[in-house]
Amino acid sequence: MSGSAADCQYWERLLAKECRSVCLSVCLSVCLSVCLSVCLSVRWSVCLAACLSVCLSLSLTVCLSLYLSVCLCWTQAALTYSVCLCVCVSVFVCMSLSVSLSVLLTVVSLSLSLSLSLSLSLSLSLSLSLSLSLSLSLSLSLSLSLSLSLSLSLSLSLSLSLSLSLRLYELRTSRRISVSAASKLLTNMMLGYKNMGLSMGSMICGWDQKGPGLYYVDDNGCRLSGAMFSTGCGSNYAYGVMDSGYREDLTVEEACELGRRGIAHATHRDAYSGGVVNLYHMKADGWVKVCKEDVSELIHRYRKDMF
C-alpha cells in the first residue's frame, strides 16, 4: 500500500510538473508570436498563426518531456532536465512556426484579395454614363468630376490616381488645375494602357478660369472637347434621345430631364446597362447631386406620358 501511495504521489508530482511546463510554453508561444507579428507588421493572420503554433508546441512539449522522462528512469534530475529542454524546444518551434505561418497566411490573404479584385474587374462594370455639363459618376475634387464606363476596379484605380495628381498640382502651384489640363493627365494615363485590350470611355467636366468645360477621353488616348457626350455600350441609344432634344439654350431643369430620359431609354434598350440614374449638376462653386432614380420606374413613367 505504501508503494502504491508513493507511486500515486510520484505521478501527481510528474503531472503537475508537466502541466507547468505546458503552461509556460503556451505563454511564451503567445508572447513571442505577438511580438514577432508586430515586428513583421502582420495583423490578423497572427492570431491564427499563434493558435496553430501553440497547439503544435503543446503536443511536442508533452511528447518530448514524457519520452525523456521515461528514457532517464523518472529521476528528479531527469524531470527538471526534460522540462527545461522541452520549454526551450517549444519556444524555438513557436518562433519558427509563428514566422512561417504568419508569412504563409499573409500570402494567402493577398492571393484571395487579388482573386477577388480580379473577379470583380471581370464580372462588374459601371453602367452607362452621360453628361450634359453634368457629372454622373466619380468626384475628383470640388470643381471637377469624372465619368467612366469601365470595369469597377480599374475605374476606382484611375480615379484615385487622377485625384492624387490633381491634389499634388494644387499643392505645388497653390491653384486648382484647369479642366483641360486634368483631361490631359487622364489621357497620359491611358496612353500607358494602349494596345492592351482595354476598352474605356470617360468624360471629365468642371469649371475653371475659362468657364465650364467638358472633355471626352477614350482608351486610345483620344481627347475631345464638346458640349454633349455619351459613353458606354448604350451610348448610341442615348445619343438618339439627346440629339432630338438638345438645344444650346436649355435650362438646368430641361438639361436634367433630357439627361435622365436619355439614360433611362438607353439602359432599357441595351442588354448590358441598367440600374439607377445618378444625376449631378456641375456648378461654378462645385457639384450638386440632383437625384437618384430607378430606371424601371422612369421607363414606366415615360411610357404613361407617351400614350
TrEMBL record:
Keyword line: Cytoplasm, Differentiation, Hydrolase, Immunity, Membrane, Nucleus, Protease, Proteasome, Threonine protease, Transmembrane, Transmembrane helix, Zymogen
UniProt key word Transmembrane helix: yes
Residues spanning the membrane: 22-40, 47-68, 74-94, 144-166
GO biological process: cell differentiation; immune system process; proteolysis involved in protein catabolic process
Enzyme category, top tier: hydrolase
UniProt xrefs under Gene3D superfamilies: Glutamine Phosphoribosylpyrophosphate, subunit 1, domain 1 (3.60.20.10)
InterPro entries: Ntn_hydrolases_N (IPR029055), Pept_T1A_subB (IPR000243), Proteasome_sua/b (IPR001353), Proteasome_suB-type (IPR023333)
Enzyme Commission designation: 3.4.25.1
Entry's localization field: Nucleus
Molecular function per GO: threonine-type endopeptidase activity
Catalysed reactions, semicolon-separated: Cleavage of peptide bonds with very broad specificity
Main location: nucleus
Gene Ontology cellular-component terms listed: cytoplasm; nucleus; proteasome core complex
Presence of the UniProt keyword Nucleus in the record: yes
PANTHER family cross-referenced by the UniProt entry: METALLOPROTEASE TLDD, PROTEASOME SUBUNIT BETA
Chain's role: The proteasome is a multicatalytic proteinase complex which is characterized by its ability to cleave peptides with Arg, Phe, Tyr, Leu, and Glu adjacent to the leaving group at neutral or slightly basic pH. The proteasome has an ATP-dependent proteolytic activity. This subunit is involved in antigen processing to generate class I binding peptides.
UniProt name for this protein: Proteasome subunit beta type-8
Native source species: Gadus morhua
Native organism taxonomy: Eukaryota, Metazoa, Chordata, Craniata, Vertebrata
